[in-house]
Amino acid sequence: MQHEPYWNIKGGLLIDLVALVAVGVFCYGVYRHWSKIRGGEERLRIPWDKLAGWVESVDVKRFLVGGVLGSRVYRDELSGVFHGMVFWGMLILFIGTLLVMGNVFLGLPVMSGGFYKWVIAFGMDVAGLAVLIGLGYLLFRRLRKYERIVTPQSRTGFVAAEVFLLAVVLTGFLLEGLRIKNSGAMETAFLGHLFASILPSGDFALILHRLLWWGHGILALSLIAYIPFSPLMHLLLVPVNAAASESYMGVSTEALDMESMDVEEESDLPPLGAAKIRDFSEGRLLDFSACLWCGRCQEVCPATLTEKKLTPKGVMNVLADWLENNRMEDEGLLEQVGSDVIFECRTCGACAEVCPAFVNPIKSIWQMRRHLVMEQGELPETLGRACKNMEALLHPFSSSISPSDWHKGLEVPAFLANETEYLLWIGCAVTYEDRAQAVGRAMVNILNEAGVSYGIIEEARCTGDPAKQMGDDYLFSMMANSNIEMFNDLGVSKIITMCSHCYNSFKHFYPPVGGNYEVIPHAVVLEDLIRKGKIRLNASGSRVTYHDPCYLGRHNRIFEAPRHVLQAAAEITEMGRTKENSFCCGAGGGNYWGEEEGLRINQTRAQEALDTGAERVVSSCPFCLLMLTEGSKNFTDEDFAMDIAELVEQSMQA
Ligand code: SF4
Ligand code: SF4
Q1: In angstroms, what is the span from residue 611 Cα to ligand 2's centroid?
Q2: Is residue 385 within 8 Å of 593, Cβ to Cβ?
Q3: Residues 598 and 631 in one domain
Q4: Of 310, 340, 375, which closes a domain?
Q5: Is there a single domain that holds both residue 415 and residue 502?
Q6: Pocket of ligand 1 (CB under 6 A)
Q7: FRET label pair with 603: which of 328, 401, 453, 517, CA 20 to 30 Å apart?
Q8: Could you tell me the pTM of the whole model?
């Protein structure tokens, strides 16, 4: 059997004129989006003259798998399956329509024989059925006001877009049904036959078919024109955002270089951080446009889940809304977002990890935080105190503890230029927090036992990471430069860290300010020493669970090394939220020094660890250790949290 594309239609080619108009409107709509995204801070625009380099840096897998195929949508299995039915179904219907056009204009042999029978007739019916089912579910969910979608608000236009799609597919099936009823057609078009069974035949049916043919064609082409003016634009914006998004998801690594800025008067100063939509970079404006307001981010955000005011979706709602309404220069953005909300973010990255549109709320929140701190000097009192300490003491703690207190009674070598291989960076938490000092002592005992060439710098300092996370880039640069100068004098090239924030800071924030080192987190050092047989552990058989520090795990993808270490010493039981889906301890983003009201994040995480039935929760960051120690006090009198170095030291002695 053969199918004639213009059966019962006269002047059908005129539809191509409508198609031209539709494509023109579509292009205009895309141009409007483009212009809005180009409206960001001029200095921060994508350098089109360096486009070739940018294209080379694009992660092709993220673009194709994450952006085009929407792999992250399937994390929520139910919603993912129905989204997939709509996406793949529409794609097949679109390709099928192109093949039919190929037959009309180029004579492609697709409208007869087995290809027509199984690919066009059967395949397109299956695709159409999938779209109908998928759309039915999505509409049902929206109309039932599914919580994550409607809280705090949902993007307008999704219902209209879904009804539009539904109308296109349904008119397509009605058309097929009328044609089958009046001309006979391939039996593999099973849905067309079903519609045919309830549709009329005869002269009236032929007129109806003609009217419906034009109606369906105009509706389908209008849908194409409508895409850039509706939330369906995410079909284009998400792949572009996936391609443009940076692989490092934390706060910006860009150095604040005031000296190289061409500034003659204060009014020439570029905005520090963002207080208006125009202050954000193109990358962020692309984020605002691509955000679907789906709410998946707030389902994993530790602040939202512990009833803080911050929801990443809520922040994106405001930013997207201001961009869409062309409020590029309007004042009052930070007031609407809320300065308390801006400081509640832990920069943990959970939101960016799950976002199906590759939006990164951290980077926008941090720009607003930078403005509050560097332009307005506005930050919560306890964070301000930590910043003052960093300015005066080069560390954030208000502590009377002496820098050598943590290693009293231990033999700890000093780092010697041209002699010592590794600098064991102690960091501020291990130096100035009682509970964290044990981590330093354990690490020293392990390195001594393994015969590693290492040394410390007695003058305990901070990397400047808390200042950067709190939004004070000036202070960070000052501290980083001071450390780099000291490292240069000593000839430091390899650094072992015990803190995930120190590791992240040396790895990502120091290279742009001129500090390039080989940095190794202690969990990786320990794995290496065990693997090479330099230290021997006696597995105790005890059950432990591992808490992934956000800045070792999610931000730097170090998931397996600490687990290998734990496996050598104990039996691991995993928490529900683990590895890239780990739940922050609450300390990130400078919030170790913050005040927390209501349900506490560290208690929530400690409870989760206790629920596994493990005897201890092990981490590889002193801030996680401190937060989990504090958090577990509410539920147990036992010492529940420990560091990976403490576990290894215990197993060596057992
Ligand atoms: S940021 Fe991402 S996850 Fe959050 S609402 Fe927007 S699209 Fe959804
Ligand atoms: S980075 Fe973490 S705390 Fe901040 S908005 Fe995202 S999920 Fe919430």
Answers
A1: 24
A2: yes
A3: yes
A4: 375
A5: yes
A6: 291-297, 312-313, 316, 355, 357, 359, 361
A7: 401
A8: 0.93
